[in-house]
Every structure is written in structure tokens, then in C-alpha cells.
Amino acid sequence: MSKFDEAIDKYRTDLENINITVDEALLRAVTKGLGPSIYNRDSQSVAFTDPSEVNRVRANFLIKKLGMADNDSLDALLDQVKTQYSKNPRYRAVVYYLLTLATNKQAIYL
Predict the structure, then answer these.
(1) What is the pLDDT of residue 57?
(2) Which phi-psi region, left, alpha or beta, contains residue 60 (left: φ > 0; alpha: ψ -120 to 50)?
């Protein structure tokens, strides 16, 4: 099994543990979009306790990648995902997958 497939299995398990039905194609596309960062211990997870990290997810993923408007609803969205996916570490691919679902922006990846 490749390292990519091992990562997908890990992310699928985390999603299933929070009762999310996994769209395999979407999970693979979101994960692939993260490139080699999924293999780096520091960049593979999102630290919601670090304001600069949360701002980076907001700016680089929600606004730039998903095309969301920059407003207060993004903070609520990030809080929702933080609460829903409370396990540590919070894998970046899982956080981005959940944000993609919550914003109904799956078409960007599929």
C-alpha cells in the first residue's frame, strides 16, 4: 500500500468516527490537492489553537481555494469544523474535506 493510500485510510477512519459518510473521490481529490504537505508532521495537521494557522486556513483555503467571501461567517464555519472534528491531531485533509462539505463546494474538486 502506498503512503498516499495509508493517509487516505487514516483520514477515512477519522471521518467515519465522527459519523461522516465518506465520498472517496472527494477525499482523494482534497488530499491530492494538499500535495506533499500530508507527509510532513507539522503541516499535515491544523492547529486551531494557533490564530495564525486559523487565519491561514481562512485565507488560503476558504477564500482563495473555495472562493468564499471574507466575512464573519467563515469564523463560524471554522468553529463548527473545530467542534465537529475534535480529535487531535486534526488532519488538514479531514479539516479541508469537512469545510468543502460544509460550504457545498465539492464541484471545485470533482
Answers:
(1) 96
(2) alpha
87 φ/ψ sector (left φ>0, alpha ψ -120 to 50, else beta) = beta
Q: Which residue segments constitute the domains of the chain, with CATH numbers given?
A: 3-108 (1.10.238.120)
Low-confidence ranges of the chain (pLDDT < 70): none
22 alpha-carbon distance from chain centroid? 13
